[in-house]
Amino acid sequence: MSNPKSLVAIVDDDQRVLESLEELLESAGHTVRAFSSARTLLNSNALSEIDCLITDIGMPRMDGFELQHVMSERRPDLPVILITGRHEIAELPQAKHNWFFRKPFDGQTLLAAIGDALTKKENSP
């Protein structure tokens, strides 16, 4: 179990996904901030407080890959978990990394990945 004070941000343009992920993460003891777009997150005051980011890939205007790139410049230490419901995206080379989930995914597996991401972040120099 990771630190219950960890702040996990979720970015997804599907309100149902936001609500279900928010419920899942809060039930596991995380503090959650939900955003309906990458821009909303980037324009918020939450950027410096986030311990882990979960973002949908297939979103209008700025997709999850673009958001991951922006975050890697602004917060290189921030773990980013990518999710998508589009199977063709799951086959792209940039989708091939440890923290990638295809919807629908198992909630416990996602929670384990968040715990892993937070542990790696805490243990990095």
Automatic annotation (TrEMBL):
Any matching Pfam family: Response_reg
PTM sites of type 4-aspartylphosphate: D56
Name recorded for this polypeptide: Response regulator
Domain of life the protein comes from: Bacteria
Cited SUPFAM superfamilies: CheY-like
InterPro entries the record matches: Bact_response_regulator, CheY-like_superfamily, Sig_transdc_resp-reg_receiver
Entry annotated with the keyword Phosphoprotein: yes
Keyword hit for Phosphoprotein: yes
Keyword set, alphabetical order: Phosphoprotein
Limits of the Response regulatory domain: 7-118
